[in-house]
Write a structure and sequence with these properties.
The protein is built from four helices and six strands, in the order E-H-E-E-H-E-H-E-E-H. By secondary structure, the chain is α/β, with parallel strands linked by helices. Strands 1, 2, 3, 4, 5 and 6 form a six-stranded parallel beta sheet that branches. Helix 1 crosses helix 4. The protein starts with a strand and ends with a helix.
């Protein structure tokens, strides 16, 4: 596996972690090695090591990043991510006014910092079922193709 990616996620109930596991399956099936870190174990310096970045995040409250993502997000805003490829996925709750917008917040930040962001994402309402996890696996496969496209493969 010559392609590598870093997947950073936050999960309170395990839903985003389950989504991340499915994204990883899709990456591995397409020969992309991936390191997975919970956001509390990650730092912005980790982003210097990888050209391919994935972020899984749940939306907290009425459209906010979860608390455990805030310090990382602040550091992310100071990074130059030019030339890096990224993707975002996450979950939320349609009972709230803003559904799964934490991923949108991250995506905008990544684009503003110069990253090329895969325009497809997966947003899940609550607990991901079989169909949603399959969509996450497809996201991993699509991100693998996105990486290879950038590598000229």
């Amino acid at each position: 596996m010559d392609q590598k990616a870093l997947l950073i996620y936050a999960s309170m109930t395990g839903n985003t972690r389950d989504m991340a596991d499915s994204v990883v399956e899709g990456l591995l099936e397409h020969f992309v090695a991936v390191e997975v870190k919970e956001v509390t174990d990650a730092s912005a310096a980790d982003l210097d090591v990888y050209d391919n970045l994935l972020f899984g995040v749940y939306t907290w409250g009425d459209g906010d990043l979860p608390d455990e993502f805030l310090d990382f997000y602040d550091d992310l805003q100071a990074k130059d991510l030019s030339g890096k490829r990224a993707a975002v996925f996450g979950c939320g709750d349609t009972a709230y006014r803003y559904f799964a917008v934490a991923g949108d917040i991250l995506q905008e930040c990544l684009e503003n910092r110069g990253a090329l962001v895969l325009q497809r994402t997966v947003k899940v309402d609550g607990c991901p079922g079989r169909q949603e996890l399959e969509a996450c696996k497809r996201l991993g496969a699509e991100f693998a193709a996105f990486i290879k496209q950038g590598a000229g493969a």
